[in-house]
Amino acid sequence: MVKPGKFSVIRTVPAMRRWAEKNGGICGFVPTLGALHDGHVSLIKKARSENRVAAVSIFVNPLQFRKKQYLAYPRNLEVDLEIARKAGANVVFAPSAEEMYPAGFETGVTLPQFFQRLKPQGLEWHYKGVLVVVLKLLQLVRPSKVYFGLKDPHQLVLIERMVADLNIPVTVRKCPTVRERDGLARSSRNALLTPDERKAAPVIFRALSHGKREMESGASCAQAMAGMREMISAQPLASVELVEIADALTLAPPGNRTRDVLIFAAVRIGGKRLADNVRFRLK
Ligand code: AMP
Fold first, then answer.
1. CA proximity to 56, closest of 86, 93, 22, 9
2. Where are the alpha helices (DSSP H) in the chain?
């Protein structure tokens, strides 16, 4: 159990820089969009247990959302601050959009070729936005370790590549997905589900687990994916947006020699997009 320690909230870039000058080198950092839940809490606790101080950012990044989703994203800073503090955070960086992207902000990043060759999901703009904000946050907080969830495998693989390609002096730590008792991955979006949708949502993890079992007993990717699609489609409130099996290390389509497998699903439950994945090693 990590004891909560000294705690402060920083809202501006210059104040964050001042904090980082003293604490960056001994800091574990957890970037978030806020609406903190047990998944975030597990990352914060890990960051605090592995470093002398833990920093959390709470920032709904306009570059990674369409306008409507950006405005609708749940925000409750007071509640989040208390959750972060109790989990062991020493500082929360919660800048405004204007603070992060002042007038005249223009520079972006390009996605690596390997990612563009993956099945296009029409979400390149989103991932570019994620990389820009992560790069800016790493520059401001200057942590020695940064913590991300395996729940978002695409952003994780991109961030790992960016850190390597741009020689960013930080260690990326990957953390397991925290789930509800019925298997549903914790997500800020779960709060948007109606009671009936919430009851339907665990079908995603059930289907992923089914796909995993199928592959472990020798089924092909096509067979495993067909079984998963069938399971999800049998749930009236769910519709499959994407089921994908990939090499867990590169996210490329799996080859004959792939052993580390990732099964990813994006499913609409009553219109709300929920994503989840499982990863495992084939014998
Ligand atoms: P978000 O606020 O959704 O951007 O998430 C912030 C960080 O928490 C990301 O690294 C996510 O991968 C991670 N995360 C989100 N949900 C979970 C979860 N259920 N378990 C573990 N980590 C999570």
1. 93
2. 13-23, 38-50, 67-72, 77-87, 97-100, 113-117, 124-141, 153-165, 195-200, 203-216, 221-233
Asked if 154 is an active-site residue, the reply is no
Cβ(29) – ligand 1 distance below 6 Å: no
Question: Can you give the pTM of this predicted structure?
Answer: 0.95
Residue 46 Cβ inside 6 Å of ligand 1? The answer reads: no
Q: Is the CB of 177 under 6 A from ligand 1?
A: yes
For each of the domains in the chain, give its residue range(s) and CATH number, in order of start: 8-175 (3.40.50.620), 188-281 (3.30.1300.10)
For 43-98, write each residue's pLDDT tens digit.
Answer: 999 999 999 999 999 999 999 999 999 999 999 999 999 999 999 999 999 999 99
